[in-house]
Amino acid sequence: MKYIKSLMVALTVVLFTSASFADTLNDVKARGMLKCGSNTGLVGFAAPDDAGVWRGVDVDVCRAVAAAVFGDAEAMEVVPTTSKARFTILQSGEIDMLARNTTWTFSRDVDLGLEFVGVNYYDGQGFLVPTSLGVTSAKELDGASICIQVGTTTELNLADYFRMNKMEYESIPVETNDEADAAFLAGRCDVYTTDQSGLYAQRSTYPNPDDWVVLPEIISKEPLGPSVRHGDSKWADVVRWSLNTMIIAEEMGITSANVDSFLSSDNPGILRLLGKEGAYGAMLGVNNDFGYQIIKQVGNYGESFERNIGLSTPMAIARGVNAMWTEGGLIYAPPFR
Amino acid sequence: MNGLTLRNIFFDEKIRSILIQAFVVGLIGAGIYALVQTTSYNLDKRGIDTGFEFLKNPAGYDISLTLIPYASTDTHLQAYFVGLINTLLIAVTGCFVATIIGFTIGIIRLSSNWLFRNFAYAYVEATRNVPILLHIIFWYTVLLELPRIKEADNFLKFFFLSNRGVYSPAPILQDGMGIVFLTIIFSIIFAIIFNIWAKKKQENTGVQLPVFLINSGVIIFLPIIVFVALGMPLLWDHPVLKGFNFKGGMVIRPEFVAMLLGLGIYTGSYIAEVVRSGIISVSKGQREAASALGLKKNIVMKLIIVPQALRVIIPPLTNQYLNLTKNSSLGIAIGYADLVHGFGGISLNVTGQAIEIMAMVMATYLTISLTISLFMNLYNKSVQFKGNS
Prior knowledge:
The structure holds 2 protein chains of 2 kinds.
Chain A: H1 2-18, H2 24-31, E1 34-39, E2 47-48, E3 54-55, H3 57-70, E4 76-81, H4 86-91, E5 97-98, H5 106-110, E6 114-116, E7 121-123, E8 125-130, E9 144-149, H6 154-164, E10 169-174, H7 177-185, E11 191-195, H8 196-204, E12 212-214, E13 222-224, E14 227-229, H9 233-252, H10 268-273, H11 280-284, H12 290-297, H13 301-308
Parallel strand pairs in A: 1-4, 1-5, 9-10, 9-11
Antiparallel strand pairs in A: 2-3, 6-14, 7-13, 8-11, 8-12
Chain B: H1 6-11, H2 13-45, H3 76-108, H4 114-128, H5 132-144, E1 153-155, E2 159-162, E3 165-168, E4 170-173, H6 177-205, H7 211-229, E5 234-237, E6 240-242, E7 245-247, E8 250-252, H8 254-281, H9 284-292, H10 297-327, H11 342-351, H12 354-383
Antiparallel strand pairs in B: 1-2, 2-3, 3-8, 4-5, 6-7
């Protein structure tokens, strides 16, 4: 009986310790690698390229955090997650952070045990229709069949929007982007709805992108941002300021190409960001040059945007509301001091 | 027996086995307790609310296939019932289709005609060796290749076929339809009573009445006569292509049809084998003896073979019904709005109450399965040999 008792105690201890995540930063350091949850494949945000390397603005946030913690942007592994399983995977400790075009909402922030640390893309739900339908506004969609990806806020926004405008629709729920493609291209639905960024991504993969048009209406606010588990502020700070560093770097005009020339700058703000002055890295629990490493290896926010989803890419998304606040957009970071 | 010393108790076979069993049960109990405790502790620690309060909150999303009233302003509980009914709908219709396919193919499999027999054989082997998910996706893909909505095929004058489903006129009941329905019920009751009476008469006098002919005549023609006499109190709502879709009428969606075909054809092949094994299990002598008495072939089948075969068929058939019901949750792959899809998917994501919702969904499937088992077991009992064997 004695052994059994100690066995039970041991079992309980194992169960409890494996389920407690007091200090993610330490866990990540001990592992020597960041586990970053992202999309299963959304071009421009998180998708493997021809060589199998994950690329995208979300992946760049993961890389920035890895650069901050290890001084090596590649010391991370992308864990693909579905829209349905992403929160459970984060909560169970399988990943350290989630950077997967995830909308910051009240209930996710408060009720689901998540902590959003910022916004890396301001999105909104839109509609993609075939040009041949001749539709120019979402207000003309009464009676349409609409393909919709399940397990997202998309369904709720859609229901609200059609109720508000006293219109009817038939919802065709699909599980993944690929299924949505199949149903939409076959004409099972007239409209495909998801976040506009997703629509652009989807359209860029179609054989003839000009045959499809994204309607002007945005029916929801979708601030997409990285999140971590609630209750670990130290780790949340690391992720938050990794993202903020990218934004501040763009604001200051520092890019991965010219960052070295700023190391001897006269601007104290820049010297703080690059770790030449002050002990900001130490406060965060990482190397003091974390800002330099992020900019050098990942680049600033604007670089990441242009490289992955900008006008020169097949996605061809204009900066729009995702421009710097100094240029009339919403991208803004608190001061680095 | 030399006193109840501790040593004696331990070496007493009976007491020891009780002790060991109690210990195992206790260990399992402790394990479950630890699991529940850990889960609730961790949920609590991460600030996730638990409980079933969320069922009263508005669901907020729409479902297209609803057999009961539902709108996005209704509660998650209502969404649960919508999903449940959709699951039951596909389970019941699926079992029906699978049974018809299964019995037909199973009997053809034993046909003396080489072509028929081997066709059935090929069907069984080809279908049951392909995963069910592929069946469903295959049929869905095929149905998506039907004409687009603007080029919908018009057939039988009032029906339209497109890759958004089959559109047909919908009946609008007028005053007087109630009487017609009453007539139908009355006819069925009459048929049952007549059946019993005719059987008795045959037992007593040996005279056979054309029961099937009379009964089907009553059930079909009596309601029609009443219907016509009341001036046909029924209007039709015809589907009309308006804007994006047909308005009015009824629609059978491709998601449902794909599920029905996938589940029916796949499970049907298993049922065919069950039926075949049941018929083979009836010994040859039975058939020969019946023939020797001069009974016709279909009578032999109906009165001698099938009743005995059923005893063998029912238990594995129950299994197939259970499989089909559980497989219906694969509808999620093609967007069939069943329990797993709506309540177990969207509600779960909206509320984040994964454990509660999954527990409810699992309990529901368990209940459905146990109910099917219960009725099939009762039926099984009724076809078993009676008497003192």
